Amino acid sequence: MMLHIPQVLTKQQVAQCRQIMDRAEWVDGNVTSGHQSALAKNNLQLPEDSDAARRLGDLVLTALERSPLFISAALPLKVFPPLFNRYGEGQTFGTHVDNAIRAMRGSDFRIRTDLSCTLFLAEPEEYDGGELIVEDTYGEHSAKLPAGDLILYPSTSLHRVTPVTRGARVASFFWLQSMVRDDGERTLLFQLDTTIQQLAAERSHKDPQVVQLTGIYHNLLRRWADS
Ligand code: NI
Questions:
Q1: Are 90 and 174 found together in one domain?
Q2: Helix 183-202, helix 208-224: angle, nearest 10
Q3: 182 Cβ partners below 8 Å, 6+ apart?
Q4: 89 and 140 both lie in a single domain
Q5: Cα 82 to ligand 1 centroid, rounded to whole Å
Q6: pLDDT-derived band at 52, boundaries 50, 70, 90
Q7: Would you say residue 37 has pLDDT above 90?
Q8: Residues 167 and 187 in one domain
Q9: How many Cβ atoms from other residues are within 10 Å of residue 163's Cβ?
Q10: Contact 190, 225 (CB under 8 A)
Q11: In this structure, what CATH number is given to the domain that contains residue 161?
Q12: Which of 21, 146, 151, 204 is the most exposed place for a label (fewest CB within 10 A)?
């Protein structure tokens, strides 16, 4: 499932991020690539262990914890510390699939990448090109979202970033391991949760059918989740 999560960051938080990014030192994006990605990738990144990346990463993680839509859709178990990239004019990232396992250098923190996330930090008007294109069985999906919005997509998908032809595209990107490994099961849980929330808003959380359905949700989660 591919999902657009609006307003993960407020415009004020975006401005704060941009200020930190403007002052930071950028390096070649291939520092985090696997072999296949390195051939396709042409952009800049904040060094993973830099003070700027850590400060920005904490800000993003705190915002994600406060997003019920993100939690419901991703059911995160472990989130890789967010990374930050910049595509200037002529820069691009060709079609690739993200590495299945991500390890943090100098630690034993390791995740299986179930979901990939891009959090846009530039407004669409600031640059031309720079669309994120994700391929699935229904074809290609393009995302170029307002600053502060996030796109969530299965890490199994082939994807690319089209060349930037004007301005600069800055974003945060990261991966997570979900409590529910299977995308189909996770999607069903998300749909069920969304329906229960709608029903509860119409009736009440104490409505007997809402209570029944909530029980079913949790019993499915118990069946499918690793924690
Ligand atoms: Ni990727």
A1: yes
A2: 160
A3: 224
A4: yes
A5: 13
A6: very high
A7: no
A8: no
A9: 17
A10: no
A11: 2.60.120.620
A12: 204
What value does the mean pLDDT take over residues 121-145? 97
The residues, ordered by sequence, that sit 6+ positions from 206 with a Cβ below 8 Å of its Cβ are none
Ligand 1 centroid–CA 43 distance in Å is: 12
**Where do we find the tokens 């997003």?**
67
Q: Are 194 and 68 in contact (CB under 8 A)?
A: no
Q: pLDDT per residue over 188-215, tens digit each?
A: 999 999 999 999 999 998 999 999 999 9
Residues 163 and 173: beta-carbon distance below 8 Å:
no
Pairing of strands 27-28, 44-45: antiparallel
Ligand 1 centre from 98 Cα, in Å?
5
Distance from Cα 116 to the centre of ligand 1, integer Å: 8
DSSP letter (8 states) at residue 192: H
Strand partners, 130: none
Is pLDDT at 218 greater than 70 in this prediction?
Answer: yes
- Listed residues: CB within 5 A of ion ligand 1: 98
Rounded distance, CA 78 to CA 97, Å?
20
Query: How many angstroms does the Cα of residue 33 sit away from the middle of ligand 1?
Result: 9
Distance 89 CA to ligand 1 centre (A): 19
138, with CB counted inside 10 A (0-12, 13-18, 19+), is exposed
Tokens of 136: 């699935």
In this prediction the pTM is 0.94
Q: What is the C-alpha to C-alpha distance for residues 151 and 64, in angstroms, rounded to an integer?
A: 12
